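> forwarded from #structure-qc
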């Protein structure tokens, strides 16, 4: 990738971020944090590949596909929240709460925490000393987000 391509991608990312910021709400900010974590993870992974002398183009591309899958999973959770909200609004009875969203924030937080944990692992591979408590904290928080999602949805997904 040459500098013009990198600059074009950067401008595209900034334009996307500016478009998302114009929407009000914490879920959009959570989405921006998720995208930022993905970008930082890809950057640190690329740096590790360069440091180790690996030809990282294919590695980065395969990692990018995984990140795209995570974005699609979060979008799927957002669509499911929208469907649930639509169904609950049309029930013939009044509920004691207003359902706005549940699945998407849990999924987003889980992805953000796992991305942050991955960034820490890549930084450690670069040779930086990462405090062990920080790595454990991200792993515990991601596990708690996963547990919370499992409790709210009724358990583990079928194998």
């Amino acid at each position: 990738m040459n500098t013009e391509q990198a600059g074009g991608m950067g401008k595209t990312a900034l334009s996307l971020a500016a478009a998302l910021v114009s929407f009000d709400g914490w879920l959009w900010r959570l989405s921006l944090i998720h995208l930022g974590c993905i970008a930082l993870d890809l950057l640190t992974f690329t740096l590790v590949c360069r440091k180790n002398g690996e030809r990282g183009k294919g590695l980065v591309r395969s990692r990018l596909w995984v990140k795209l899958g995570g974005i699609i999973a979060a979008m799927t959770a957002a669509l499911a929240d929208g469907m649930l909200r639509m169904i609950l609004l049309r029930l013939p009875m009044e509920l004691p709460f207003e359902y706005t969203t549940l699945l998407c924030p849990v999924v987003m937080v889980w992805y953000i925490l796992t991305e942050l944990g991955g960034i820490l692992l890549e930084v450690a591979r670069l040779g930086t000393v990462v405090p062990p408590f920080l790595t454990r904290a991200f792993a515990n928080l991601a596990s708690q987000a996963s547990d919370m999602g499992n409790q709210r949805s009724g358990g583990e997904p079928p194998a």
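QC bot note: Residues 48 and 54 are 8 Å apart (CA to CA). Helices lie at 3-21, 26-51, 57-89, 103-125, 132-153.
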